[in-house]
Write a structure and sequence with these properties.
Length: 574
């Protein structure tokens, strides 16, 4: 181990020079595109744009947290103190929406918030997987990394200013459209909002026809497109993205203002840049499908380097793999069309990871021998193999000291990080190296969790209940609960049966009173949110008569507290 030990002491987590240089793209500044049209770069992960109007201003995208927006709000105010008349969300992603409360300033209660109709739907469902995506996004964006840990940047922005303590009130759009485009005149400024599904399905780009300024959202930035995000997304529809870029280039804009990386100008240059970007996406899509049709799996295609960007694409400044990568895109496109199964027979019903680890270690002559092989792999610079072996040893350490395995695994992760051009991959490796040492634990603060619940629409909260059903507890349970909210007259029903919770946004029709187990009358929606967020206990709410329990025929019966509490215990996320 001595050889490796010395390396720990001397290790500096290097980074590809090009990724280090990419940081220059994010120098904090407000760039004036044309009089009254500004783009703020470097205040958060994304850009935020200010358009001054006659009697009010328009802001496009609002950064990732209130903390990130505070300084920007001050600087925007210094440019123009007119009230913010409208805010436009280019899409639902966290780095574009969470600073609204701050940036809207004094006009928060009157501000109009525009988005595509799909954005609202995306907000509703984001919560479904937020537990895992919080953790995965923290790794991708290096949210817990400092410079001492080797963070360089986030590829399309300097650093996501968003951690377990950030405030992120989610303000829903007030005005949405579900057509291809929407013409608006706000404070004397004419804008066309185009639905342009690309990096997300709800993406819109904003065009000012008179000034020929195109706000490109996340459909183009100065880094290889993220056709798949390792933080966890469904694969972006590459074909749709390409046609949205066609729409964008055909506008022949004089100014292109993306929501990440610096704006550019010149109609011809913009046309060429969008063209090369759309061509790269089409290239990776078409070639992946081509090799897929020849029977190749993603491992084959990537392992044999069957798809390499042609030289003019590979060398283009907008296609450097600082964010998305060609290899991850190949896997994602395969998955989008074909699904998880590679077609290799041993992948059809694989053993559990712990059994595979055990078999590997037995084959290698026991854990001590395998650990020696992992050390050899490290000194021979085979870091991927070293990582695989240490992962297996972690699952099946036998007589080995776990801390020794982790030490070697950390070194392998740091080395793999140092070769990664994609900031996403680098940040992931480095974050994981801290996690396995027990130095960080990634989770939102309890306050953030309850804030999210309090801000969510009631409908979403009911929907999320079904994914928190503990089916082992509920397997023998068959009960129907009806809910009525007195302040809004909203009605819901939950029927737990067969290990599922069937949630409906209304009461069943023609229901017989004897089929109803409990009717839950709630005086205010807020009370129910407090119960879900564990701010107030259900027993207390019942005794305060904020929750009134009735039987199927509508008679108040406080003894129903027992089945009500049992019902609530069925929903535990862990
Ligand atoms: Zn973004």
């Amino acid at each position: 181990m001595s050889d490796v030990d010395t390396k720990i002491a001397s290790l500096k987590i290097e980074a590809p020079e090009a990724l280090v240089k990419q940081t220059e793209e994010f120098a904090k500044q407000i760039i004036t595109i044309l009089p009254g049209i500004h783009c703020a770069v470097g205040y958060g992960l994304a850009n935020s744009m200010l358009i001054e109007g006659d009697d009010g201003n328009i802001i496009i995208d609002t950064l990732e947290s209130c903390e990130a927006a505070i300084e920007l709000h001050k600087d925007f105010q210094a440019i123009s103190s007119k009230p913010v008349a409208a805010i436009i969300y280019t899409h639902n992603h966290a780095d574009h929406v969470f600073g609204t409360e701050v940036l809207a300033g004094d006009n928060l209660s009157n501000v109009k918030i525009y988005s595509h109709a799909t954005t609202r739907k995306m907000f509703d469902i984001t919560g479904l997987i937020q537990r895992t995506t919080f953790q995965r996004a923290a790794r991708q964006f290096g949210m817990y990394l400092t410079e001492a840990h080797g963070i360089v940047n986030d590829g399309i922005g300097l650093h996501l200013k968003f951690d377990k303590n950030s405030r992120r009130p989610l303000l829903y759009p007030t005005d949405t459209f579900d057509t291809d485009s929407l013409n608006l005149t706000i404070a004397g400024r004419n804008l066309v909002l185009y639905h342009a599904p690309g990096e997300t399905d709800d993406q819109i780009v904003v065009y000012m026809p008179k000034e020929k300024v195109l706000f490109a959202a996340d459909n183009i930035y100065k880094a290889f497109p993220n056709i798949y995000a390792i933080r966890g997304t469904s694969t972006r529809d590459a074909i749709q993205w390409v046609s949205s870029l066609d729409l964008m280039r055909n506008l022949r804009a004089e100014y292109l203002v993306p929501s990440h990386t610096k704006p550019i100008s010149g109609a011809e240059y913009i046309y060429e840049t969008i063209t090369i970007y759309r061509d790269a996406i089409q290239f990776v899509h078409d070639q992946t499908v081509r090799f897929m049709n020849q029977g190749f799996t993603p491992d084959d295609i990537i392992g044999k380097k069957l798809i390499q960007l042609p030289k003019h694409l590979k060398e283009h400044p907008y296609l450097q793999e600082f964010y998305g990568t060609v290899d991850w895109s190949i896997r994602a496109i395969f998955d989008r069309y074909i699904g998880w199964y590679s077609s290799k027979e041993s992948d059809l019903n694989p053993d559990a990871p712990s059994i595979r680890a055990q078999n590997l270690i037995r084959l290698g002559g026991g854990s001590i021998k395998v650990f020696e092989s992992a050390q050899t792999a490290y000194s021979e610079e085979k870091y991927q193999w070293c990582l695989e072996l240490t992962e297996a040893l972690n699952l099946h350490p036998e007589d080995l000291n776990k801390s020794e395995i982790i030490q070697l695994q950390v070194l392998a992760l740091q080395k793999l990080a140092s070769f990664q051009t994609s900031a996403n991959g680098r940040n992931w490796y480095l974050t994981k190296s801290l996690e396995i040492q027990g130095l960080i634990e990634i989770q939102p603060s309890p306050k953030q969790v309850s804030q999210t619940i309090m801000n969510a629409p009631l409908k979403s909260l009911f929907m999320f209940l079904s994914i928190n059903l503990n089916y082992q507890k509920a397997s023998e349970f068959n009960q129907l609960f009806l809910f009525h909210f007195q302040d809004t007259n909203a009605k819901f029903s939950i029927h737990i049966r067969n290990g599922i919770a069937d949630v409906k946004y209304q009461w069943p029709e023609n229901i017989q009173s004897k089929s109803i187990d409990v009717i839950v009358e709630v005086t205010k929606e807020e009370i129910w949110k407090q119960v879900i967020a564990r701010i107030k206990g259900p027993i207390e709410s019942v005794s305060d008569e904020e929750i009134i329990l009735k039987d199927g025929s509508g008679e108040i019966n406080q003894e129903l507290i027992v089945p009500f509490l049992i019902f609530l215990t069925m929903f535990t996320s862990d």
